[in-house]
Amino acid sequence: MNRYIWKNENEISNNYIDDDNNGYIDDYYGWNFIDDCAEINRNINEFSHGTHCAGIITSIVGNANIKIMVLPSVEKGGTAEEMGNVVNAIKYAERMGADICNLSCTFTEYSQELEDAIKYSRMYFVVAAGNFESNFIKGLDIDTYKRYPASFDLPNVITVGNMDINARLSPTSNYGINTVDIVAPGEWIYSAIPGNGYGFMSGTSMAAPMVTAVLALYYLYYDVDVSGAKDLLYQNAKYNKSLSDKIKNGNVLYFMN
Predict the structure, then answer these.
(1) Fewer CB in a 10 Å sphere around the end CB: N or C, the chain?
(2) What's the chain's average pLDDT?
(3) Where along the chain do its domains lie?
(4) Could you give phi then psi for residue 192, rounded to 5 degrees?
(5) What residue ranges in 24-171 does DSSP mark as E strands?
(6) Buried b (16+ CB within 10 A) or exposed e, 214-230
(7) What is the DSSP pairing of strand 182-185 with strand 189-193?
(8) CATH code assigned to 2-252
(9) Predicted confidence (pLDDT) per residue in 176-196, tens digit
């Protein structure tokens, strides 16, 4: 996966100097916002979720000239501190020239700072709708029971639900006819994990990078901006009648005929 990793060519690695004056010292490979350091692989085994998501993207884009900016921001999920990490990571990515941001994370608490960071960004954000399961409920309507950033009503946010191998909405996937824009495969996805291994994971976090990868390919290979790539994504999605009361327009991203 190393050949896909973005590098900050204006920074000299390990010289303890902020060569490009962006406020981050030695951020040649990005920045670890969890540990607030340039070591993006520090505590790598705890970042298996992000590694798995990145592996999904690389498996779809193949030899395309697409780079992944590694910005670990969320470890446990749901904390105000980690929401602040995400905001800082968005601002970093914006400054360093990223075009598309995959956010396979959800928060239950609203943050004006997070919404503003996304709203005023030139990037497009592919975000996980989130998963929910209790003794009585599987999957939440996030039109009503908001999850963030998934429930932000912003034109540069693409919210992704999770479907199973039968192209049905996964029972634990959140949904919302006004909020969830598209669903993609997210059940038992085989991808990279730390330690040069591979493993299975499931959830909307796995579905989101599927969409991120396809959006990036449209952006790379067609004469369009990211907004145009988003239009192509929706135009080429398939309609699934069984999902028409769960997500916008019943949009489904298939990787099959």
Answers:
(1) C
(2) 93
(3) 2-252
(4) -70, 145
(5) 100-103, 124-128, 157-163
(6) bbbbbbeeeeeebeebb
(7) unpaired
(8) 3.40.50.200
(9) 999 999 999 999 999 999 888
